[in-house]
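During the first year of the project, the team set up a workflow for recording each protein of interest as an amino acid sequence followed immediately by a discrete structure-token representation. This format lets reviewers and collaborators read both layers of information side by side without switching files. As required by the reporting guidelines, we include two representative entries from the current panel. The first entry is reproduced here exactly as it appears in our internal archive.
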Amino acid sequence: MLERLQAFFQSLTQGRGNDAISPDDPRVAVAALCFQVMEADGVVHEAERDKLEQLLKDEYRLDDEELQALLKAGQRAESEAVDYYRFTSDIKRHLDEEQRLQLLGILWDIVYADGSRSEMEDHVVWRIADLLGVSDRDRVSQRREAVMRSAQGSKDAS
């Protein structure tokens, strides 16, 4: 799983430095979608936020200051957005089909970070998957894989 995430995040940063985070940086769109998924059920659990921070920091190789800048940019973009299209259209321009599937897996990992999935979270991921051009079959497959990763993570933490 770690290799999959590393490959995904590295594909987003190819040719980009970590110093500046511009609004059109695809990492901002990814962070914004993650925030939308986290906020879908009305409660942002600490485990979800921790998972997002861990993924962004490790995979983009950000220091604490850069991480906070990306989180702030993503949250600002998310709060200004009226729908998911703004982010998904940007992501579709930058990511191929396999990378979009990986992103969906990441969104599911954030959903399951708190140990459960709400109907609203499920709906948000479904809408994002639809806009990214991910099939229902692939969306469900990514969800199942995230459930297995979550269960494995729980066993490892015990």
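The second entry, processed by the same pipeline in the following quarter, appears below.
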Amino acid sequence: MTIPTVPALVVPEVFSRWLESRGLIYQILVDFYGRKPSLSLVAQWRANRQMSIAAELTEGGRELKRYLCGQDPSELPQICEKEKAEYVRLMNERSASLFSAREAIQLGREQEFCNELSELYASAGVVFKKCSGEADDHISIELEFMAVMHERMLFNSFSVRSAMELLDIQVRFLEEHLLKWTPQFCSRLNAATSSPLYLGLSHMLEEFLPQDLQMLRAWRASLESSASTMA
């Protein structure tokens, strides 16, 4: 009996740096869009060498790196208090302004839209533990979904086929959700704040997501080529 072989997952060098950094970029965005910028959070990222590497992939990341790593440690408590107040102002869901960190509100969709996202997450085997009752279409939850899918693709995939399945989920989520509303979100965030932290995060987000989609598509093409060669 012939046992069918499954092509092993091999990462070409051209994609290695992107794969090593993209999960960290998503985690940075989740951390700062999902909670107030505490002193411990800022100190954690200041000390993280991998953040410095990941930040270099975008100009917005370099802005964020200069701001977080360029401050005197004695000034950090005051800076964090200022940025906490800005987070509360920007992320206040009861605000009457057009600015919102939720897909449904940005695109004028019904609240029931969150149920569709909840079902999408569940179909991918993802259940979020929400500390602050975030809606399923909140920017931090959608970005965390991408971070979870990245980890599964990178660390729990041992074949081209399984990697491509997880890759396709991410491509569709970027195309059908994040990239449909984050350009407008970033534009409104840029107009709503003068904070170096949130401007850096906004610039990072609007630059990184299209770049990430392009790289996912390119890696998929590479995986398809590898699989056909081994067939």
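For the second entry, the following points were noted during internal review. Residues 196-230 form the longest helix (35 residues). Residues 13-89+132-230 form one domain. Both points are flagged for discussion at the upcoming steering committee meeting.
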